[in-house]
Amino acid sequence: MNAGVTTVIVGSGTAAQTSVLRLHVGLSLLTLFPGRVGGSETNVRGLLERYSAEDGPDRVTVLANRHVMAHYGRFARGPVRLHHVRSYRPGDGNATRFAAMQFGRLAPRLVARDVPSDFDVVHFPVTVPIPRVSAPSVVTLFDVQHHDMPQLFGRTEKRLRGWAYDDAARGARLVVTSSAFSARSIARHVGVREERIEVIPLGIDHARFGPAEDDDERVLAPLGLPPAYVVYPANLWPHKNHERLLEAFARADVDGVSLVLTGSVYAGLPSLESAAQKVGLGDRVMHLGYVEPEQMPALYRQASGMVFPSLFEGFGSPPLEAMACGCPVASSGAASLAELCAEAALIFDPADTAEISRAIERIVSDEQLRVRLREAGLARAATYTWSAAAEAHVRVYERAAGGK
Predict the structure, then answer these.
(1) What is the mean pLDDT of residues 35-44?
(2) What is the reported pTM?
(3) Number of domains in the chain
């Protein structure tokens, strides 16, 4: 019997009968562009991996746009099937994607005309509530950064997030988020009652992220890495705090150690390079841009450590992935990060450049600390699994479906 099969007692006393109800879950990925949404897609893929292995609901129908159909075929096995919703045209870029979302909002019946009608519950794991359905809904909302850090968002983006995130959460029967920090923010800023919010941390792919150095030298050879480095994987977004990191690294007494950055640069690379030159780092900073998934574990394993100075994370998987690879981690304690890393990381204040600098020095040079963090990190990361996340989601689906 799958985890999605629930026993229900009908009646009372000696005449009570037991019936079995099988949940049919719709998983809406209509607004997903594979490869572009970071943690949201990591969550989707992690859950689908378990669901397709029969470690989830009894039936899962993925509502897919044409991009998802092209990239997610390997998940269509076991209880999982893909259903191409041809009435939703996702577009090919940001402008057309936004237009498609607006169409889905303004003409919900047209978008939903070829959507199955027999769902017990529909899950929106990338938040945006398209298509509109009559079944109870579950919305995943990782954070409400537009409320927690409103200075980073323009008026138009705030309005879009107000519909796509806030209204979606208010209209759902249950909201899933990934940290207690985010749950508190959603309750405070969006007005969703705490009893309607379920905290389910993301899992870690332990088959990929582990301490064993299988073939690291060959895997990393194309990257041309420096002999010793500290790594920070993060897109060049304002809240990722790269400027303070550069200042802190320039002050740190870590001769012979470079700073290696990864992630999408958007239009920020010239500014980053200028900032590095300004603080005198020059060729001690290396930005790799996008790094292939199979290279990331080796990059963590061969690093002297990870420094993660982000000002805001609703969850933040990279520190856990680094821990799973045996990489000592120094992390910001902002937002969800202190909760996530706990005693397994060296926690610092991301607004204090001197404190970041001292953390870098310790993570590189304090061997006793390095050993302790490596052991604590491996233990901490081991507690985050996709099986646990899938099991918790099934309980949420059962609750959303009305106790079925």
Answers:
(1) 81
(2) 0.89
(3) 2
